[in-house]
């Protein structure tokens, strides 16, 4: 199609494909490999079994476990890292708990929707600001006026997907607490602190609130999958504090590493260690802004999210005293386990870059701009297409944000609405993006069943997209008071870059160092006690 339908020279098509395949392997494949390695290592050393017992001690109900892990913990990981890490880690955790693979993968894909907009320390919103020249704080604020409807619905929809409406009614207090705490915190943080921290703070608040609720409330019946043995709450003894900390050590370290790796100040230092490889021919492709396509492949191995996970692996080995030989055996087995999924991911991302560079994606977007008065109704669809093709809300915003802005100005609409709609529509496609499907199948051990998972997620994606389309249209013509006023000077002003976090990054780093010290002390005391 690229060569014959879009008249792309075969050599350039080959370069674009190779560039995309390398991007699929790094940083995306690197994230999956590191995350699954950490998971396999935790299984091998026994800490994952302890972690599962601790979750089972909170609740043996599969519905509530899905809220705790897929929604709350997954949103935290999305806020810290994104790019496949949340689905890779949470799907593996649910399978380890005993979830059926198709449900584990499907639930994690459904949960990984709303958090995508503020993922990776707000990178999608910041990218939209850079591309469109609008203030990313205002784009993030506008997104907070669109996404709450999805964040309120998603916890309910996860439970309905698992157990039907009857099952959802049985755990409505947990659904309400999870949805409200997450949504309210997200809106407040996006309004007053910018787009960098909404995911991280709202997911932590929601996780703590749900855990506290489960201390004083339990569902009338413990729901398990059909054919699964019933959960016996009296069979498992409460875990001692030291044992509990040891079980959670790999994932506590993961949180600390991933959380601090993405902080702007730390990330900029790590990013200074970057090797650049040039694909000279790609500069022959001229973009709509009359600038050549970037021909540099940046191998920022130290600043990559996958490296932060791998750093967590080494710290886990140190704290849990895992022999290097044993870790090497687990890594070798992980490479064998993921050889086909990594090839799949590389192929999918190669297609995405070829589609972008050949003009396929732009052509799809332009076909929707001609809708005139009804453009706000289809504006989210543009973002939906971008994320479906590229697998990234950041990429979709980079590709279409300026087009959304120009169309809005031509139609005398506030461009904040359509640029934000590009993000909000994009998050609804994350669950059906081939890249996300491949990651979920790899983590849930469903390689070869990508088609089944796609068919499972597609109706939910279309339903969420329809909600965002209707909301955007209403905000454009019926509820314009929901759109923040746009300062005239900001229409052509370039966004300056990441939103400063002030002392927040260093505060989190200090807390992280303190927690690492506690982990070291607990595990040292455990060794002394055993001796």
Q: How many beta-strand runs?
A: 2
Structural class: mainly alpha
- Choose one word for the global shape: globular
Q: Give the strand line-up of the largest sheet.
A: 1-2
* Average pLDDT level: 80
What is the number of helical segments per DSSP (H or I, 4+ residues)?
21
Order of secondary-structure elements: HHHHHHHHHHHHEEHHHHHHHHH
Number of domains: 1
The poorly predicted ranges are 491-505
Strand content of the residues, in percent?
under 5%
Rg result: 23 Å
Largest sheet, in brief, is: 2 strands, antiparallel
Terminal CA distance: 67 Å
Name the helicity range: over 70%
Q: How would you briefly describe this protein structure?
A:
With 531 residues, the protein is mainly α. The chain is built from 21 helices and two strands.
Descriptive overview:
By secondary structure, the chain is mainly α. It has one domain. 71% of the residues lie in helices and 2% in strands. A two-stranded antiparallel sheet has the order 1-2. Helix 3 runs antiparallel to helix 4, helix 5 packs across helix 19 and helix 7 packs across helix 18. The longest helix is centred in the N-terminal third of the chain and has 36 residues. 53% of the residues are buried. About 3% of the residues have low confidence.
């Amino acid at each position: 199609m690229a060569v014959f339908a879009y008249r792309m020279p075969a050599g350039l098509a080959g370069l674009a494909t190779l560039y995309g395949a390398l991007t699929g392997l790094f940083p995306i494949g690197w994230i999956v490999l590191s995350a699954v390695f950490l998971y396999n290592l935790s299984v091998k050393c026994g800490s994952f079994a302890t972690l599962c017992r601790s979750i089972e001690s909170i609740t043996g109900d599969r519905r509530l476990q899905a809220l705790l892990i897929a929604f709350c913990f997954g949103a935290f990981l999305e806020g810290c890292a994104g790019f496949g890490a949340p689905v890779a880690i949470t799907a593996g955790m649910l399978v380890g708990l005993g979830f059926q693979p198709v449900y584990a993968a499907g639930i994690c894909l459904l949960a990984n929707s709303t958090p995508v907009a503020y993922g990776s320390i707000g990178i999608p919103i910041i990218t939209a600001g850079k591309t469109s020249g609008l203030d990313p704080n205002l784009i993030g604020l506008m997104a907070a006026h669109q996404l709450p409807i999805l964040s309120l619905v998603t916890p309910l929809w996860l439970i309905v997907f698992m157990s039907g409406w009857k099952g959802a009614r049985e755990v409505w207090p947990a659904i309400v607490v999870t949805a409200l705490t997450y949504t309210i915190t997200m809106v407040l943080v996006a309004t007053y602190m910018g787009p960098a921290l909404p995911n991280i703070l709202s997911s932590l608040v929601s996780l703590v609130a749900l855990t506290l609720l489960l201390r004083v409330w339990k569902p009338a019946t413990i729901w398990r999958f059909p054919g699964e043995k019933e959960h016996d709450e009296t069979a498992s003894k409460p875990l001692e504090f030291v044992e509990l900390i040891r079980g959670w050590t790999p994932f506590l370290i993961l949180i600390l590493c991933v959380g601090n790796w993405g902080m702007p100040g730390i990330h900029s230092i790590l990013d200074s260690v970057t090797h650049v490889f040039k694909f000279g021919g790609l500069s022959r492709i001229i973009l709509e802004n009359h600038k050549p396509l970037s021909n540099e492949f940046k191998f920022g191995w130290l600043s990559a999210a996958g490296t932060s996970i791998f750093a967590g692996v080494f710290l886990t080995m140190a704290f849990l005293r895992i022999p290097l030989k044993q870790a090497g055996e687990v890594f070798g087995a992980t490479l064998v386990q993921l050889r086909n999924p990594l090839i799949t991911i590389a192929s999918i991302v190669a297609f995405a870059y070829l589609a972008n560079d050949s003009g396929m994606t732009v052509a799809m977007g332009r076909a929707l701009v001609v809708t005139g008065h009804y453009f706000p109704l289809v504006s989210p669809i543009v973002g939906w297409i971008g994320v479906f093709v590229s697998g990234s809300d950041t990429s979709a915003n980079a590709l279409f944000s300026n087009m959304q802005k120009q169309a809005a100005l031509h139609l005398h609409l506030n461009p904040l609405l359509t640029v934000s709609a590009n993000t909000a529509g994009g998050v609804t496609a994350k669950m059906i993006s081939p890249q996300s499907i491949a990651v979920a199948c790899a983590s849930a051990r469903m390689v070869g069943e990508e088609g089944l998972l796609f068919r499972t997620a597609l109706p939910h994606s279309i339903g969420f997209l329809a909600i965002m389309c209707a909301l955007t249209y209403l905000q454009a013509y019926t509820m314009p008071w929901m759109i923040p006023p746009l300062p005239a000077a900001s229409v052509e002003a370039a966004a300056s870059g990441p939103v400063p976090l002030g002392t927040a990054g260093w505060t989190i780093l200090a807390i992280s160092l303190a927690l690492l010290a506690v982990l070291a002390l607990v595990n040292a005391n455990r060794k002394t006690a055993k001796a």
